Amino acid sequence: MKRILIIEDDPIIAEVQQDYLSANGFTVEVADRGDVGLEMAMRGEYDLLLLDLMLPHTDGYEICRQIRKISNVPILIVSAKKEEVDKIRGFGLGADDYVLKPFGLGELVARVKAHLARYDRLVGSGEWRKDEIRLPGIRVDKKSRRVFVNETEISLTAKEYELLLFMVAHPNRVFRKEELFERIWGLEANGDHATVTVHVSKLRDKIERDPSRPQYIETVWGVGYRFNL
User: Fold this and answer.
1) How confident is the model at residue 123 (pLDDT cuts 50, 70, 90)?
2) CA torsion 124→44→6→202, rounded to 10°?
3) Which of 5, 99, 128, 201 qualifies as a FRET site for 209, CA 20 to 30 Å off?
């Protein structure tokens, strides 16, 4: 049974999330303080985190930053902060999704299930693990989920890795941001392109010799992105 940690200081919201997720077959624990939630999350016992941003003692941004140093576990930010800058900051720190309050419980469960399924495929299925991809300057060991640029290993978040793997599997093809969002995150884009933009930018920083003049991930202006071989 999948274990979910909710880090949320509003007891009513936390209780509703916990009850609905429990009714859908998940084991759920709640932390109502940021520092407590971070300590619990760092144990590595959870399959997914639901994270508020405005928390006492330690905010959600710092929790996300610390978790991404040690784990690629899916992190879904659930927040009333709806400015684009807040979403960009969250994605930039490694969050996998951003759900605005108030939210529909059905939608929340659907997103949780989608991210868990993709994470399981990423780290657990034979298809994802059995091969190695070799490109000029890049090597992806799918069995161990390790990525090397000029034989130097780089660290990618779960979504950065999944995005890279998808694009190298479809070289020289242009993908719209909406398509990448739907393929990687598995949900309708709903006009939110910040997720893809931030993840492409961070991926370029890690794999490109000069991110301002990318060799691999090319921006096709007015359309989307293409992985060049």
Assistant:
1) low
2) -70
3) 128
